[in-house]
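Appendix C. Worked example: NADPH--hemoprotein reductase
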Amino acid sequence: LTAMGEPSMDPTISSADSTAQQDSLFSMMDVFLISLITGLFTYWFFFRKKKEEVPDLPKMQSVAAPVRDSSFIEKMKKTGRNIVVFYGSQTGTAEEFANRLSKDAHRYGLRGMAADPEEYDLSDLSRLSEIDKSLAVFCMATYGEGDPTDNAQDFYDWLQEADADLSGLRFAVFGLGNKTYEHFNAMGKYVDKRLEELGAQRIFELGLGDDDGNLEEDFITWREQFWPAVCEHFGVEATGEESSIRQYELVVHTDVNVNKVYTGEMGRLKSYENQKPPFDAKNPFLAQVTENRKLNKGGERHLMHLELDISNSKIRYESGDHVAVYPANDSSLVNQIGEILGTDLDTVMSLNNLDEESNKKHPFPCPTSYRTALTYYLDITNPPRTNVLYELAQYATDAGEQERLRKMASSAAEGKALYLSWVVEARRNILAILQDMPSLRPPIDHLCELLPRLQARYYSIASSSKVHPNSIHICAVTVEYETKTGRLNKGVATNWLKNKVPEQNGSSSLVPMYVRKSQFRLPFKPSTPVIMIGPGTGIAPFIGFIQERAWLKQQGKEVGETVLYYGCRREHEDYLYREELAHFQKEGVLTQLNVAFSRDQAEKVYVQHLLKRNKENVWKLIDEGMAHIYVCGDARNMARDVQNTFYEIVSEFGNMSQPQAVDYVKKLMTKGRYSLDVWS
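Step 2, the predicted output written as structure tokens:
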């Protein structure tokens, strides 16, 4: 339009010429504009039509697609299954229990399948009655503070919103939890209650496994009563078949292309050589260790601070998040297993699922070598569960050893007691069992099939992304102890991390990791006071919190009181981050630093004692300042003792009875003003 108007603005054109030119120009303009408007309207009309018509087609397709692609009902019909065992699993135990239950089914003339709820449309539960003698079992672990596991989140959301009629559904639930946590078995309890509310029929009582006690025994006790209830309900009997059934078959590769062999990757082949975001549990990022220093000045323990470089990874984190690390088993343990079983650990093999319809084609990434499987994929340091002992018993050539293994795998009281003392309390791992039973020499491929997966380890991030956007810090203590058999057992991840020495481009200092989001968050308003309680390595997230509050203060924000209650054994031995905390206090960011040294005097002093000492100030911050409380560290004793101390403070200064004080603190939790990041 500017170009079209330019000639009329030219001062050198005479008035008459200008008029003639304008007449000619306007007629040309009319034709041009009419053509332009017509063209634009035509284009818009057809474009608009497409915009309106397109959504209708996908809508029709989207109704059918998920049902066809993710219907466990169709899969069960196709493969002749009548029992489906769903698992909500964070560390692999619930998945393992689900697999054991689905394998049990054949003993009763039934056929089972284990299923990840993330892979299926759970609204199909209303159709399960289409299958004769059908049953849905749920092995549901509770994660963190009463949360569903990552793979059960969608199922949990669906249950909350669903108004489905599940009156034809028969079900049973086994929950996996830990009594040291506030919300013991919350997920198992919720699924059991909610399914009944939706009309489903419970055919056996809810099982509550406690990992703080003996989770394996809880499961076996529940299972031995569960199957008779199933038999009674469906009018079936045990077939008496107790034989070992292999789930995978061994294929040895003699001339495989080395580029097709897994060497420790969690998902995509060669993903460690060719890194592509986004990074998660199935695609971890290889972070370089840029710093690894010992934090404590003395004592027999080794406490360390590590820094992982996440530059160019596009990984984002917030203070309070967790970093998951995939460790490797000690090579000496792996070599000893190879030697004792007389195996060439560098043999390349695959374990292929005999059930061709199964979504799980291999127990771990295949093809790979036995050495890689035992180093990166399998848990060889935890005491094996009873089902592993049962399956291994057939390979013991000594009758006494075979009977001992079968007894420990049985549900008899004597067998349970023997398993508890000889395996669990003695902390015998698979290598120790092979060493102490000279006639037990199973095929290594069957052993690899039976051992559970080596799991990622989670650590509270000890840094703020506002201050360290390209680096994640970890604070950890190495685990090392002597067992009742005189063996020295070492924690897999902490001892592996201890040896991660920073090098220039050295592969030995690479750590496969990803970030797991948490609800452990600083208040939205920086002016809100915070009370942080974190003894030992429980200080980790609070280093990040304090760094962030210091950064906010530098930005000119009004930052509320920042109060820390920290505890360690001795002031001159294991006072972690002493210099950093002193600096933050000097800068005025850390307004209160209260430190309990438990062993520096005759009477032990812990963080809860310091809270009681400052109870008036603590109550004022909570009541008037609307402070947020954060507790990080040991769940079994510390977190419980701290919570009881808050009950006492609230009761005394809030003029409340004990039940009212308990209710007050629980309401703080509900409102997000009392947060826990604890472990047992």
